[in-house]
Amino acid sequence: MQLDPRAFLWDVREAALAIQSFTSGMDTAAYAGNAMAQAAVERKFEVIGEALNQLSKFDAAIAARIPDLPQIVAFRNQLIHGYATVKVGTVWNIAQSALPALLKSVQVLLDELG
Length: 114
What we know:
Blueprint: H1 5-23, H2 28-32, H3 35-58, H4 60-63, H5 69-81, H6 88-97, H7 99-113
């Protein structure tokens, strides 16, 4: 089976859209008080980090066009492996501030790749 970089980008886009859906209408306090939303958001960040990690191995040129890719993969590793305890506020801030730019970058690449 031939791998296609669009599959990894699609996974990132869908996970990012899910995070936005999960947090829609919430503020920091509502998110901090909702364990199910936290678990769902963290899982989708894990999907994003893994997809980008695999993309970087499969097509380094496309992966290099994703801003902050190493930090995104490192964030995934922190969530999964517990290298450092990730605070709820940190996850919330990333979802609100960094995720929209990532989503835009991924959508541009998907549009270019057809």
